[in-house]
Structures are given as structure tokens and as C-alpha cells.
Specification:
The protein has 609 residues and is α/β, with parallel strands linked by helices. It is built from 20 helices and 27 strands. Helices cover 36% and strands 24% of the residues. Strands 3-2-4-1-10-9-11-15 form an 8-stranded antiparallel beta sheet, with helices on one face. A 7-stranded antiparallel beta sheet has the order 5-6-7-8-12-13-14. The chain has a 5-stranded parallel beta sheet with strand order 19-18-20-21-22, with helices on both faces. The longest helix has 22 residues. The structure holds 6-O-phosphono-alpha-D-glucopyranose.
Amino acid sequence: MCGIVGYIGKKHRAGEVLLDGLKRLEYRGYDSAGMCVMDEGREQTFKAIGKVNILEKKIGKCRTKTNIGIAHTRWATHGKPSIKNAHPHKSGKIHLVHNGIIENYQELKDELIKKRHEFYSETDSEVVAHLIDEENKKYDFETAVIRALTQICGAYALVIIHEDEPKKMIAVRNSSPLVIGVADGEFILASDASAIIQHTNRVVYIDDGEMVVLTPDTYRVKTFSGKNKRKKEQLLDWTDDEAQKEGYSHFMLKEIFEQPNAVSDALRGRIILKNGNAKLGGLIEVTEQLRDIERIVIVSCGTSYCAGLVGEYMLEEYAGLPTEVEYASEFRYRKPLVNKKTAVIAISQSGETADTLAAIREAKNKGALTLGIVNTVSSTIARETHAGVYNHAGPEVGVASTKAFTSQLSILVLLTVFLGRQRQMSFTMGKKILSELKHIPKKIDKVFEDEKNIKRIARKYAKYESMFYLGRKYNFPIAMEGALKIKEISYIHAEGYPSGEMKHGPIALIDKNFPSVILAPNDSVYDKTLSAIEEIKARGGKVVAITTEGNREKLKKHANDIIEIPKTLEMLTPLLSVVPLQLLAYYAGAKKGFDVDKPRNLAKSVTVE
Ligand code: G6P
């Protein structure tokens, strides 16, 4: 997830509008920033590592009077944060900024190198500039863009300018957001309305498969196949802050709703159905070593720890690899038994958590192969592990982790298939898991359809002081994560417990003031879970059940409140069952008036012991 801005018009200096827009889009990425402005075809490009204010200082007084330009604030996916990898990218007279991931960039790059194109960066984005430049040798600017689009696969919002056409800007969209701000005598293109709202509240949202051609006076929208489209302008009455959150009241809620995209981005280009296998570019160098691995240890903290627990169930059942999950803070100070046949996997959204980093250093020191499942490209954990897989979930702003979690689970499924296929897993099983995994984003969307019901339940239970979260097998870790979420956001004392363990002690706590949220999907342990519900009901405890769709009638007499999730493979249910628990925590916290994005006593990234 990056932020892009484009300006074309007669009213303002492009550089000023672009810098201002970048600052407002910084929440989308902030590892480097760049800008290209043009004055009568003379281009000036500026790039800086770090936040936008560093770029601003670099530009200094060089802000000439320009009326067309593009800018970008980056959240690295392909290629570490560096000046070379910062956008805009260029080839010949083409300059562009890109938000998204080009899946087939390596094949395209190889072809272009054969045609004598020289590349300056490690990014997937630069390939698109070269592709347009190559087509532009034979075709006009607009046709060249369209011809390039037919060759790229992936997600993109692109804003493109041409040195020979200083009064034209082209933008295209496929699966990455793009909106035009419309004002008299000027247009602003951006990833979201927060970069626009201070100039105009008239906006046009561009849809997938659409291309916009802008001049200082007018714009037209057409499909990639050339059909003109009439677009409706919308009037926004958002404040700057609301625009950054795209109308959601908190970043946490926005990030919960971003999960279908976060999962799609984690899977993009990594599912190869015809081989029944996952392609994980970051593991290529250690592929052979992974064949010899006999054991896995996952180290992580907080929400990432709960993701690791789900991974343990998947890896043992489907890859046949003995797996343990440890709190990184414990692993680092005891005597961990690892050797070169052990892969120690760090799961970390930030890639900077001090305990996880120390655990990885300890494992490395003992000769283990270390791997990272990390969201932040080039973070310390990403750099210090031998190899790894990036999440591509984009920055997570809310302190309580949501989209990073489902993204981590998605990577763990891919890793299970990859390691499983190196061992006993059949082609058919690999294909079955991956085919179903592809449907998860749509199924998460389906969970959102029940938002009203979830909100009602959250408000109803927000008054309690203590709660149990119970689950079994794949959903035991989700019970832990659900309890963690409600503790963090709503300050309700909650315990995540394996439902079968209740009878060994915790059930003594149950009474009418101690409700339980029970994960009861239609899985191999469903009957056992039903027994747990009965035991709680018999002691006067209230029950909220999360179950598979179609079960409502059957469960009605057992549970006080019911939330349904779509049917999926047992190993994939955590990707769906966690979503209502995130919403329960969010709405309970919001009802109590807490600062959901910045809960008390917590930090997004804990870089101290
Ligand atoms: C902090 C955050 C949690 C997060 C944990 C691990 O405690 O508040 O939301 O799960 O750190 O962070 P990591 O970046 O390593 O995943």
C-alpha cells in the first residue's frame, strides 16, 4: 500500500499541491517519497528516504512554477526502501508512480532487458515505465499505455506523464484505489480523498478497468477497451481526518474492512493451481535447505503469536512437520534446543519487536535456519533472517492488529502447502487448499454482511467485566486472539481458553455475569464444542456462538446470540472466525467511548524488552 498523487491545472504550483497531498497520504506508507514536476516539458525529479518532510527539505527552494506533476509515498513491496527504489520511476520520457503489485514483472523485465532497456531499481513498478516507453516507440502516449496494460498482471493504480506532452496526464486503475478531485481549472488524482479534500469536495471514483486522460481543462474516462464512460461526481462532506479513514470512524475499523484486500495481496502471484503449490519468491534461496528441515519453531508476540499457534496446527496436520510456538520473550532467555535441521520462523507485523528480534538472533547463533513472516519490508527482522515472506498488507495504523493477522494466516497456509508439497502432500490436496484459499477474501466480505448483528451483540456484552473466549483445535488460537482483542480495545477482562479445558477449573467462574464467546464452526470437533456450550448453559452462563452458516436454527436453543460465518475448509476457518471477534472488540470499545486506535498502555511496535 503506497500513496500516490497527481496534479494538473492552472491554479496552483504542482509541487505544493503534491507535497501537501503526500503528507496527508503518509499513513499509507512512509519509507521513502518522491516527486516529478514538469515545466514546459522540462522535468525535475526529487527523491528522499524516509518521511515526506525529508523530501520537502530536499526540494527546498527549487519549487519552480509548474502545473503538472506526480508524487508518491512508498510502502516497500519489491525492493528495499532506497533512493533508487523510490518513485517516480522513468524510462525515456515516461514518468510514473504506482501503487500495487505487478505479479509478472520479472518475466516482463527479462524481455525488456533483451530489448536493451536498462533498469535502475529493484521494483516491479519500473517495469511498467519501460513497457510504456517501449510501446511509445510505435504508438502515441495513450495507445502505448493501453498496450502496456494488456501485458501486466496484478494490482495497480498508475499516474503517468510524458515529457513531450506536458499538458496531459493519464491514470489507470485495477484493484488499487484511485480518485479524481475536480475543481475549476485543476484536477488532483490521489489514492484517497484525504489528498484532495482541502482543495475541492467534488470527487469522481475511478473503477477497475478504467483509464482517465486529463488536461488542465478537462478529463475523460474510458475503459481499457476504449469505450467512453460517463462518471458521476460525488460531493464529500468529510474532514481531512475522516478522509484518511475513508469515512470509517477509526483506523481499526477501516483495517478490519481492508482484510479482503490484505488477504488478496498476500496471495497475489503466489498460488500456482496447476502445480497444486505455492510460489514463495523469498524462499527460493533456501528451498533445498527447507527440504531437510525436521522441525519448526515459531517465535512471536501478541497477535502474531496467536497467528503462529494456528500455523502450528496447519503445519503439523498438512506438512507433517513437528512445530512448536513460543512467546519470543520466553525463547530468548531459556535454553532453546534448535540446530541446523530446525527452521525458526519469526512472525512480526512491524519486523522490529525487540523480543522477536532477540529470539531470532539466539536461534541464528545456535545454527538454526531463520525465516521471517514480516509485513514491513527491510525492517530489522526481515534483514536479519536468512529468508522470508512479506505480507504486503500495507501499513497498519490501529495499535490492535487486525489485517496483519489474517494476512499472516494466509502466508502460513501458503507456507504449509509449500513445505507439505516438498514432503508427503499430494497435488490434489495442495490444489484443494489453495483453491479454497482463493475464495477467502469474498467469504470475509460475506462476514461483513452480518455487521449490524455483531454490533448489536457487542453493545449488549460491553457492560460485562469478564468474559471467556473458547475454541477447540484450529479455533483455540482464535479464542486467544479474540480475548486479546477485547482486552486491548474494550478493557474487558477476557480469557482465551481451549473449550475442552473448561471443565478442569475455569468453569468454576461461570455465572450469569460471566458470558462466553464460543467458536463453534461445523468442524471435526463440533459435537465436543456443543457439549462445552451445554456445560456453560447448565451453570447459568450466557453464550455467544460463532458458527457456520445454516446452523442458526439448530443452535438457537443453546446459545443466547449467534453469528454465522461462511463454510470453508476446517484449517481455513480461523481466517473467517476471527473477523466477528475483531468487530465485537471494536464495537464494545467504541460503545464505551475508548480511543480504539490508541488503547491505553499499549504501543504499536514494542522495541524495548
Ligand atoms: C505490540 C502490539 C500488538 C502486536 C505485538 C507484536 O504489542 O500492540 O498488536 O501483536 O506488538 O508485534 P509485531 O509487530 O511483532 O507483530
